[in-house]
Amino acid sequence: MKKHNVLIGITGGIAAYKIPNLCRLFIKNSYNVKIVMTENATNFVSTLTFEAIIRSKVYVNEFIEGSNESAIEHINLVDWADIIVIAPATANTIAKIAHGIGDNLLTSLMLVASNKTIFICPAMNTRMYLNPVTQQNIEILRKRSFFIIEPDEGELACGDVGPGRLKEVNDIFDLINKHVNALDNFKGIKFIITAGPTIEYIDPVRFISNRSSGKMGIALADYASLMGGEVLLIGHLLQSHGKLFNTIIIDKAIEMLELLKENVKKYDILIMAAAVADFKPKNVANEKIKKGEGLILELEENPDILKELSKLKNDRQVFVGFAAETSNSIENARKKLIEKNLDMIVLNNVLRQDIGFDSDYNEVTLIFKNNEILQIPKMKKSEIASIIVDKAIEIYKSKNV
Ligand SMILES: Cc1cc2nc3c(=O)[nH]c(=O)nc-3n(C[C@H](O)[C@H](O)[C@H](O)COP(=O)(O)O)c2cc1C
Questions:
Q1: CA 333, CA 348: separation in Å to the nearest integer?
Q2: Please, what are the domains in the chain?
Q3: What are the pLDDT digits (tens) for 344-353?
């Protein structure tokens, strides 16, 4: 098996003390490791510590007197690397990378590394992290196809509680390692994923919709593309999302249906995470309806998208549906699974206030065609997404041996 080359960039944050363990994990798992530190990072952990672990030189300065080699070090290091991981990534370094500033070895090499697989692991004080300028800079990187390994929430070194704590190094390693190994597993597999609500117009300025935020569908698209799958995401309210995958914005259920009908044959795995409106106004007014005379809204049913698509499904494809039930959950979800010829259905309990709509967390039950049931306890939507996508891949592989 090829030994992958990972270049770890360490910047000046408190969490730098956790990175020796990350290096150990990579080395233990047969990765070749090189390290670049910013000057500020060396205030937190010395280069000596890392040199003892990786048994080679740690790079800090771009311009070392008397060395010809160092003049092009930033290019050599990028050529050597298969993957670049910046952990911890300070707000400062994230800002510099987002805006093309190359004032030290690490930021200079990031200017060269535009075609590399790059993971950024932000870690900082909660207020620093939530500051709109930091959020915008992270968004810029996401749009440039950097993989952002979001920080955890919890108590930080400064005593603040909130998001900003470096993701556990075991989790960082697992995610990156999974990405590297999954490339073979996911490569060439095409996902078509829907997310968020649909909106159904009453008149040119008003619509009816539902509380779906799209977070679950985006998490699914994020994970599938992180693992190397080719992803098309369709939905409403997705404008602010990055460019790791293609996105098509729609408003109405009927638009979503048409787009899916046109495209679904070209994809291997369909995941319908969108909360499609069941009903739409029977008549849409051409002009804004005036107030004063009251309004009785007559609704009619939207077409059942999954039922329509099931007519186009071939034996090699995997279809995954979502069910938001408030009663008789498992029984109803199973009925849907059979009626719509699905391979898996993800059952949400939409009555719980602490999870589901607009939350970063969810608790779901996966129900499979062979009657198997998998209860997933409350966890982050990103983690649930990885379980759903891994299961879908497993089913896809079993159908396409
Ligand atoms: C004790 C201490 C802890 C710090 N921790 C962090 C941190 O966790 N995250 C962060 O973004 N900045 C942190 N900073 C601020 C950065 O060190 C500072 O912005 C610095 O310029 C970053 O340089 P670099 O990005 O080149 O490594 C800390 C500063 C100090 C003095």
A1: 10
A2: 5-181 (3.40.50.1950), 187-399 (3.40.50.10300)
A3: 999 987 666 6
Query: Is 121 one of the catalytic residues?
Result: no
Full-model pTM = 0.73
In the reported structure, the alpha carbon of residue 8 is separated from the centroid of ligand 1 by a whole-number distance in angstroms of: 17
CA angle 361, 236, 260 (to 5 degrees): 105
Measured by CA distance, the residue closest to atom 22 of ligand 1 is 12
Mutate to test the pocket of ligand 1, among 40, 45, 165 (most ligand atoms within 8 A of CB): 40
Q: What is the pLDDT of residues 177-233, one digit of tens each?
A: 988 887 767 878 999 999 999 999 999 999 999 888 888 998 899 889 888 889 999
